[in-house]
Amino acid sequence: MSALSACTPASSPKRIDLVLIGARGRVGSAFRARLAERSEILRAGLGIDLRLRAAYDRRGLAESEHGLDPIGVDALLAPRSAGDLDRLWARVGSAAHTVAVDCTASDEVAADYPALLGRGIAIAAANKHAGARPWAFYSTLQERARRTPWHYETTVGAAIPVLGPLRDLRLRGERVLGIRGLLSGSLSYLLSRLHEGAAFSEAVIEARDLGYTEPDPLEDLGGQDVARKLLILGREAGFPLEPKQIAVEPLTTASAIHGDALQKALRAEDAHWRERITAAKARGERLVVVARVGPAGGRVGVASLPLDDVLASARPRENVLEIRTDLQQQPPLTLRGPGAGAEVTAAGVFSDVLAAAQRLSL
C-alpha cells in the first residue's frame, strides 16, 4: 500500500496557496500540468489542498482567492500594471500558508527572496540566482529560512536528489573534502552531439529548442549557469565561498547577442570545436565540462578525459556528481541521473512545493 493510499487525514485538508512565477515558461507550464494532475490525489491522500492563488510572468498576471485553473492560466493572464506585484504580495502575505513557486532564471526575482521570507511566504525555486549571490545575501536567506521554508533542491541536478544527501552527510558528521561533477545536462547533451558529428552551432540551437538550455543559451555556454550550481554545492558542502572564487572557462566568445547574430557567431566557432573533438578522439578521450569545488574555491571548464572516467561515460543530458568526504574517498559517493529538461525540473520543483507545504501544515 502506498503512503498516499494509507494516509487518512483526520481533519479537512489544509489549504496551501501557491503563487507561480514564470507561469508561461517551459518549466512553469510543466509545473502547472503536474499541479492539475496531482492536486486531487494530494488533497485526498495527504490532506494538503494546493491552490494556485496567483500566477504571473513579465507580461501578465492572474489571481483568484478561490484558486485558478492551472491549465487555463494562459487565457486568464491580464497585462501587468505598475505596482501590481507589491499589491499582490501584500494580499497573499496576509494568508497563513503561501508558497512562492519560482520557475524563472531571473536575478530580479531572486532579489525579492529576503522580503518574501520576511513576510512569512515560503519559497520553492528552480532559480539559481538567490543561492549564488554574495555570501551576505545567502546568509540572510539561510537565517530567514529557519523560520520560513526555502527549498531549492532543483537548482542543482534538476530532479536528482543532490543537495539533500549533501546536507545529510554533514549532519551525520562527515566532512566534505571536495566535489567533482558534470553539472549541466544541457552541456552534456551538447558535447555528446559534437562527438556524434554535429556542428557546434547546430547543436546549441537544437539544445535550446528542446528546452535543455536556459532561455538564453549563452547562460549555459558562458559557464555561468554551471558556476552558480557549483557555488550552491560548495556552500552546501560547508565552504563559505563568494561568486568570484569560482573560475569559469566559457565554451564561446559570444556574449549579449541573440537571434541571427547569435547563430552567426556560433557558426564562426564550428571549426574550432571540430578540431577539439577530433584531437580528443585521437587520444581515445572525450571532452566534458568538468566542475570542481573545494574549500578554496572552484573551477568550471572543458577537460579531455579518458573514456573510462565516470564523467566521460555519462549519457546525453545526464548529471554525474562525485562527493569526497573524510569517510568516502576511494571510491567517492557518486550520484547520477537526468539533469536537463522542463518536465524533470518541474517534477523537482513540485517535490520542493510539497516539502514546503508539509512544513507549513505542521
From TrEMBL:
Q: Which InterPro entries match?
A: Asp/hSer_DH_NAD-bd (IPR005106), Bifunc_Aspkin/hSer_DH (IPR011147), HDH_cat (IPR001342), HDH_CS (IPR019811), NAD(P)-bd_dom_sf (IPR036291)
Q: Name one GO molecular function term.
A: NADP binding
> Which Enzyme Commission number(s) are listed?
1.1.1.3
Which PROSITE patterns does the record match to this protein? Answer: HOMOSER_DHGENASE
Enumerate the catalysed reactions.
Answer: L-homoserine + NADP(+) = L-aspartate 4-semialdehyde + NADPH + H(+); L-homoserine + NAD(+) = L-aspartate 4-semialdehyde + NADH + H(+)
Pathway(s) the chain acts in: Amino-acid biosynthesis; L-threonine biosynthesis; L-threonine from L-aspartate: step 3/5; Amino-acid biosynthesis; L-methionine biosynthesis via de novo pathway; L-homoserine from L-aspartate: step 3/3
Residue ranges of the Aspartate/homoserine dehydrogenase NAD-binding domain?
A: 25-148
UniProt keyword Oxidoreductase, yes or no: yes
Q: Which GO terms describe its biological process?
A: methionine biosynthetic process; threonine biosynthetic process
Instruction: Alphabetically list the UniProt keywords.
Output: Amino-acid biosynthesis, Methionine biosynthesis, NADP, Oxidoreductase, Threonine biosynthesis
**Enzyme class, broadest EC rank:** oxidoreductase
Under Pfam families, the record lists:
Homoserine_dh (PF00742), NAD_binding_3 (PF03447)
Segments forming domain Homoserine dehydrogenase catalytic: 161-354
Q: Needs which cofactor? A: a metal cation
Q: Which family does it belong to?
A: Belongs to the homoserine dehydrogenase family.
**Protein name according to UniProt:** homoserine dehydrogenase
